[in-house]
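tool_call: predict_structure(chain=1)
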Amino acid sequence: MAGHSMMRCGEFKTSYRADTTIFPTPWSRNFAIIGVALLIVAPYLPFVSDYMITLMIQIGYLSIAALGLNILVGFTGQISLGHAAFFGFGAFASAWLNNELGIPVFFSIPLAALWTTAVGMIVGIPAGRIKGLYLAIATLASQFILEDFFARAEWFTGGSAGSLAAPFSLFGFEIYGDRQYFYVVLAYMVVMYLLATNLLRSRDGRAFVAVRDHYLSAEVMGVNLTKYRILSFGVSSFYAGIGGALYAHYLQYVSVEGFDILLSIQFLAMVIIGGLGSVMGALLGTIFMVLLPEVMQGAVGILKTTEWGNIPAITDGLTWIKQAAIGLAIVLFLIFEPEGLAHRWRMIKAYWKLYPFSY
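tool_result:
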């Protein structure tokens, strides 16, 4: 109307390029930049304790591995119950490359990830022929095969004694302490998340989603199902390898017992709770899974200070409740929020964008 300024209502995409941008709105881009900037200054904030830095490092390397599993499960529609074994293989491979071949840690981490990719693609070969429950059993078998390999291959893993991993070093400068290592994990995390987002915007990424949504239609359109199913295992294993290597050089010790089936299930829980088929969901799910035991521990401490803390049945059952919380969280999310935390975040954003006309 003449004399009136036009007000934009909503975000309108006028090209395919605009529809596949990493950040759908300027607000989301600015929010991500502010988030990374806050993380960069976090170690120097007075209220951020050493323990909080430890938790953030843990979230960092686990979220990289969880993102790899989400590319496999959420974007390609495959299933893997052996992700922890690839996470462990990356950890042992990076330590071995550094200890035995003298390769600097800066280079041993990506090299270990490439080794893990090769192992993952070998394990992924059955995925070209089988799917569903049969594929789940095949990947479960790979979990136990690699666990057995870790226990027996003393030249590679140190066997039951485990393996020492050197601290992270770059051009002769060694990084000691959580506050310095936090930046190493943050740098890897930002790079790996940007790589995943760009991958899913590419032709190969769209092929992954096509295989998940309707594999027969994808095949008719010329998508090589076998190639992309195996490739998704390779990409997933690469991410697991990076996460495992970062874990190894953080703890500076790798033990065979740390990569069991329970950790594989926890990775699946991160993906389910965060949201299948969402890059941000992998991060949200990891944050939830890392902080859940901490919240339960705090709740247990508060309960012990009340009159309920004197009841033996409650005090004896507290350790069991902490273990059961993970399983309970998965069940509750599958029932009440099957699309995960990422979907809930999108709903909250949509509510504020459309308010007060939410209908």
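agent: The chain has a mean pLDDT of 85. Proceeding to next step.
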